[in-house]
Amino acid sequence: MNTPNQSDPAANAPIEPAQPEAAPTRTHRWGLGAFFFAQAIFVLVSVTLAAALGSPDGMALVLMLVLPTVLAGAVAVLITVVRGNGPRLDFGLEWRWSDVTTGLAIGGIGLVTTTIATMLWAKWMGPDAQSTVSSLVDGVQLPPALAVVIFLHIWLVAPLCEELLYRGLLWGAMERLRWSQLNVFVLSTAVFAIGHLEPERTALLLVIAIPIGVARMVTGRLTASVVAHQVNNFLPALGLLLLSLGLLPA
């Protein structure tokens, strides 16, 4: 019978257990300037289109609503590719069922609180209470295809693009400065509300942003906040769809 070689230390050494693979760290070379640059793109494109198109309808209206947000979101992604590791690693933007279910749950709670807050805000502001998007669509009856494009943008696309900016670039820039998660949450929520440039709705936007930021904070990834934001935007998007089709009174 063969016995271990007593003179061979390697033969008698204990077997080390396999070490788990370390989780990837989000190291990137962009900071607050990246967020301000992407936000400036959004503002400049919005102002330019508003000056060029005046009171738009039809395709011009769709262009004014869609283009600034999509361009800003695309710039955010491009920054992560050029100065970081891409949105999957820098933002945690990846498909995970756990993040989706968390986003759905928190977004559902947020939808209830947002609906109540919107009703209170509308009662406080009176009959003229409208968002910027609602004021653009008010009185404009769109072809069904364009109305559906706006509906899908407000429901699905705009939340993704806004999350890339506020809970992506801004959140990641503050994390790079080693701010606490609570401070990152509070400041990004405030900047989200102010960044919409609707002073009369700032308080309402703060309420809307809280559950979205919570989804980002508890998971550490952007997917959950995107889903929560999309859940929150469904009813407003549906209302705009019915309004733009003439099926809902202004």
UniProtKB/TrEMBL annotation:
This protein's record includes keyword DNA-binding: no
A biological process term (GO) from this entry: CAAX-box protein maturation
Region (Disordered): 1-23
Keywords: Membrane, Transmembrane, Transmembrane helix
Compositionally biased region (Low complexity): 9-23
Pfam families: Rce1-like
GO molecular function: endopeptidase activity
Span of domain CAAX prenyl protease 2/Lysostaphin resistance protein A-like: 146-235
Annotated TM spans: 30-53, 59-82, 103-122, 142-165, 177-197, 203-219, 231-248
Protein name, as recorded: CAAX prenyl protease 2/Lysostaphin resistance protein A-like domain-containing protein
Organism of origin: Saccharopolyspora shandongensis
Phylogenetic placement of the source organism: Bacteria, Bacillati, Actinomycetota, Actinomycetes, Pseudonocardiales
